[in-house]
Amino acid sequence: MADVLPGFTFDRQSNRYRATDTGRFVGRQDVLRLLDANIDSTSSRLASLATALHEKQISPGIFVDRMRTEIRRLHLQNRALAAGGWDNLTPRDYGAIGRKLRDDYSRLINFANDIRDGNSTLAQSLNRANMYAGHARTNFWEAERDRAVPSSPDMRIVERRMLGIAEHCPTCMRLYDMGWRLIGELPIPGDGSTECKTNDRCRLIRREVPYWELDQWIGRRGGGSNAPTTETTAPQFVTTAYSPAQNTIDASVRYTKDQIAAYSKGEGVTPEVYEQRVKDALKELMDGKPIQMQFPSGLADQLLESRRFKTQFETGSSGGILDTDERSLGEYLGLGLPRNLDPSLRPVYGYVKSYRGQEQDVGRTFGDLTFVLKDEVRQRAGYTAGDSLYGFRSGFVVSSPIDEVKLESMGVSTRYLHEYAKLKGTMGAQKAAKQVFDYLEYIEVQIRDGVKLSDIKTLIDRNNALTPSQIDQFKQLGITVRRGK
Questions:
Q1: Which of 291, 446, 409, 295 is nearest to 353 (CA)?
Q2: Domain that holds residue 165
């Protein structure tokens, strides 16, 4: 195991690697970088062997023997990397590796003879050596595909080819343009089915989706904002730490940049100027502002009894939109949370107070009591500019840490943020924010690991709706209670 990913263990429940010293999960991009590093390192050694044979520093027999050793090691490493370690390799894995190696071994003797007899130039030999290393890459994608099993009979796995960092052949471009397909319908990168042969640097991404949504996925064309590209192996079970997939982040950034490019033309400024304005506006509206939550006073007794805010997955009710299927899919895309996560571990939603009196505006939908959270809650809070439900589900935005201004968390809100930047100069920040948030509503906050009453600093009972007994109970919990407007 240590030879596959030193310093890490494989968590079978989440199907992910975890750092042994910190306990943190390893990002998928890091695993793919290790895959590429293994291949590049072996490719370099294979190239050295080919060069040595050309220069007659080694014999054909030694060349074949050392090539076999290097190739066999790489095939095993790549398969074990996807499987989660040597101990997780199955007879099926070893059988697949054996078949590939037989093909490679049968060609090695001809390769050595061509170099010996002068039938292969050095450039040709280096390219052939590189293809052996590329062929080993297929083990990773096959092992992942073999282990991609739906979490329930109601779920299906879809797959998509993504372009890696390389020059791409026409077939690779066509496969990318095919969009999402049922798992197994697309060829494995590097299996020789494209002009790239084993040099294919494309990647596969997978998603687990409800079977009734298949018609929304199968046949989508690549490159559009309506085709989310979450790079993950389905089903993906993760902890409650927010970790949107890198491909989803990249897609959200592209969408936001497209918005900026379009709106900047209408404003008569460059995209760079427009982008800086919206970043400055978001920072100003969010920096140092308290995180708040609205809650109905009619449920105060239940809140005092549970001493924590429950999610709509637990209560079956919502002050906004009640749609647990839509919400779980959104949290899967925008937060990286599994769809079958324990309801009590799902995020609780609040907002950043960006102007005076915002409590009243937001409270009309979500409740008359205002809970102001303690500053330390910011450490486990993410945000989106505006409501996340539609943005997450559509792939327009993802959640970012609350103290970081990120393009991927803006989405369609860029025009409103720019409007604020324009208006504040003529009417002041307070009036400009109130006008803009009539459309934007709020900067939403997603708080992981739930919110307990011990996380509350202040309770504002604007309408004097709480009873003296309820007020006393909140005060006994260390919460400052303010009444009236």
A1: 291
A2: 148-237
CA distance 136 to 74: 6
- CB 195, CB 171: distance < 8 Å: yes
Residue reference for tokens 């559009």: 224
Q: Of the candidates 205, 237, 269, which is a domain's last residue?
A: 237
Identify the domain boundary among 142, 174, 189. 142
Contacts of residue 460, Cβ cutoff 8 Å, sequence gap at least 6 = 359, 369, 370, 371, 372, 482, 483
Identify whether 401 is preceded by a cis peptide bond (ω within 30 of 0). Answer: no
Closest CA to 188 of 169, 175, 174, 170: 175
CATH (domain of 99): 1.20.120
Which candidate, 144, 123, 138, places its Cα nearest to that of 197?
Answer: 138
Nearest CA to 160 out of 217, 244, 215 is that of 217
Q: Which of 48, 94, 92, 90 is nearest to 75 (CA)?
A: 94
Regarding pTM above 0.70, the answer is: no
Closest CA to 465 of 303, 286, 261, 352: 303
- Between the alpha carbon of residue 27 and those of residues 31, 165, 274, the distances in Å are 7, 19, 32
Identify the DSSP state of 192. Answer: S
Residue 175: strand, helix, or coil: helix
Angle between helices 429-440 and 358-366 (to 10 degrees): 20
Q: With b meaning 16 or more CB within 10 Å and e meaning fewer, what string describes 25-44?
A: bbbbeebbebbeebbeebbe
Among candidate residues 296, 346, 290, the one with its CA nearest the CA of residue 458: 290
pLDDT in tens, 190-238: 887 788 888 788 888 888 888 777 777 874 333 333 344 433 333 333 3
Angle at Cα 30 formed by Cα 163 and Cα 2, nearest 5°?
130
Residues 103 and 101: their CA atoms lie apart, in Å, by 5
The 3-state DSSP class for residue 294 equals: strand
* Distance between CA atoms of residues 211 and 207, nearest Å: 12
Cβ pair 407, 253 in contact under 8 A: yes
Number of domains, the chain? 3
Helix %, strand %, coil % of the chain (to 5): 55, 15, 35
pLDDT in tens, 296-343: 999 999 999 999 998 877 876 655 555 667 778 888 888 888 777 778
The two structure tokens encoding residue 12: 């079978």
